[in-house]
C-alpha cells in the first residue's frame, strides 16, 4: 500500500504564508500525479493545485498567483507554498497521489489532512 503523510498546517494571520508538505511511502512503483485539495466546514472538497510527474501544474482560480505547487520526484514528496493567505483559505488540506503500486497496481491515495486556519 501507499501512504501519504502531510505536515505544515497551522494558524497564520491574513497575508501570511505557510508551506505544506506531503510525503508518499510504501510500495510505490511510480507516481503519475500529486495534488492538494481542501475542504472547509459545510463545503465539498475542492481541488487547490495539481502537478504531474512531468511538472505540469493546474490551480484553482481562487489561488492562482498566491499558491505554488512543486514536487521532488526522488523523494516522492509534494509541496504547497501558500502566500498572501486569506480567511477564505481556512480549511482542512488533503494531499492526493495517483500512481502504480508495485503489488496492487494502479492506486489513488489520500492523506489524513492538515488544518490551515487563517485568522487574526
Taking all Cα atoms into account, the compactness measure Rg is: 14 Å
Given as residue ranges, the uncertain stretches (5+ residues, pLDDT < 50) are none
Helicity, in percent? under 10%
Oligomeric state of shown chains = single chain
Q: Give the overall silhouette.
A: elongated
Largest sheet: 7 strands, mixed
Helix and strand pattern: EEEEEEEEEEE
Helical segment tally?
Answer: 0
What class would the helix/strand composition place it in? mainly beta
> What distance lies between the first and last C-alpha atoms, to the nearest angstrom?
40 Å
How many extended strands? 11
Please state the average pLDDT score.
95
Strand content: over 45%
Question: Could you outline the blueprint of secondary structure elements for this entry?
Answer:
Elements: E1 2-7, E2 10-12, E3 18-26, E4 28-39, E5 46-52, E6 57-59, E7 67-72, E8 77-82, E9 91-101, E10 105-110, E11 114-118
Parallel strand pairs: 2-11
Antiparallel strand pairs: 1-3, 3-8, 4-5, 4-9, 5-6, 7-8, 9-10, 9-11
Task: Explain this structure.
- With about 120 residues, the protein is mainly beta.
- The chain is about 0% helix and about 60% strand.
- It contains no helices and 11 strands.
- It has strands at about 1-5, 10, 20-25, 30-40, 45-50, 55-60, 65-70, 75-80, 90-100, 105-110, 115-120.
- The strands form 2 sheets. Strands 2, 4, 5, 6, 9, 10 and 11 form a 7-stranded mixed beta sheet that branches.
- Strand 7 (about 65-70) and strand 8 form a beta hairpin.
- It is elongated.
- The chain starts with a strand and ends with a strand.
- The relative contact order is 0.33.
